[in-house]
Specification:
Length: about 525
Amino acid sequence: MGAMTFSTELETLIRARYPILYLVTSEEARLQDLLLAVAARRQKKVYEWTCSTGLVPAGTSIQSQKTRNTATKEPLNALDQVIDLVEPAIFIFKDFHPFLAKHQVTVIRRLKDIALHLKNSHKTILLVSPVLEIPPELDKEITVLNFPLPTKEEMAELLEKIIEDVRQFRQVTVDIDEVGRERLLQAALGLTLSEAENVFAKIIVKGERLSGDDVDDLLAEKQQIIRKSGLLEYCPARETLDHVGGLPVLKDWLVKRAVAFTPEAQAFGLPPPRGVLMLGVQGCGKSLCAKAVATQWRLPLLRFDMGRMFGSLMGSSEENTRRAIAVAESVAPAILWVDEIDKAFAGSRGSGASDGGTTARVFGTFLTWLSEKTAPVFVVATANDISELPPELLRKGRLDEIFFVDLPGQVEREEIFRIHLTRRGRDVAAFDLPSLVEASREFSGAEIEQSIISALFDAFYDSTELTTQHVLHELRQTVPLSRTMSEQIERLRQWAEGRARNASVVRTAASGTPSLHPVADGP
């Protein structure tokens, strides 16, 4: 909901004489400006209350001592003042939630009594707080509204104002074209106006210039928001899709969806992509893909750790999940990475007997959000064991696509060797790649990387340069996971056939079956 739509709804509720509105937001100043505009149209006065100033006319300067109303610092006195004032007015009570706690029975009762009086007057009480706390006694009297974060249009106005201001200073360079401006605004979405203003100022002070390449500073500001929540982990993503060996179908799918967050895509009728589930053999690049897509799309990567969701108090786990989702949406567009989702929600069907149904309820909260989310949060879920995956997760509409990531084929293994040797400063031409590729049959990408690292240790210990023989020796010493878990991998392949897209093999249009792709090994 944009600010204009919210303003219309708020004005409608005030006109309809809803007695008490609860507005959840940390943006008091921005909300107050909107309320002053609504009050001017409805010819109402606006008063604000805090526990430090009492009830004073809205907009009173913090330095102005004479307008402070000491007696009304007490909430009961302030509520009495609401009754005594007869003129049409809006009363903004800021951070009133501590006075709605269980032990504040007098305040709660007084507010309930006042609600009946307000229904027959032209006065409205607005409780403004960053947290939602409503005692059961006031459930029927209070209407809750979430104040939306600034829209792209509001961010654009702020950016224009800042550009206009800094152009007066010759030492500050403004280098923003239409593409760069769009990139900055897209990255700023999810911040409050105050946070965006601070980070734009920081960019200007730090480099004495403002350009479309300063997206990383905006993402760092979002990282701060995520860190403060304590529920999601911000993952700095340095890997790119070039660091992912093989998986051409999956990489092509991800590259094509990178443009879906642009205004052109929305004008074309494209919805933001919802998410992807990658399942398959361990160590074959699923987690690496999650990090690479964040770099490719230049979006913050948030790791959803299920262990942090579970609290000791009844109902706190579901509330933690809702809060984590709210944080992800507040910094959107973003990527939410749920690693090993099969383990996170394992046993959700038998949860009633094992943990009182907590896992099932948390899973239900997450599934409902997946189905109904409108914020541009792209979910990347990874899984190794399909037997633990609840069938509800696989239903179309929750995620865009399910990919099966198999062991790398011949061409893919060669690409993986090239990537890891190059990253470690070695000339690929100096190695016998065909021998290495042949010796690494049924090895995962992680096992190939580990063999190169182990070979580097041996070469360094022997005070010699890394050679093909060092790597071949390590490959021969390694028993790959595909041999120790051959039955589970075969079962996974059989399940994925017809249920998931192969991340490496292109399906033929005629038969719908995988074509003989060059990445696959021969018989």
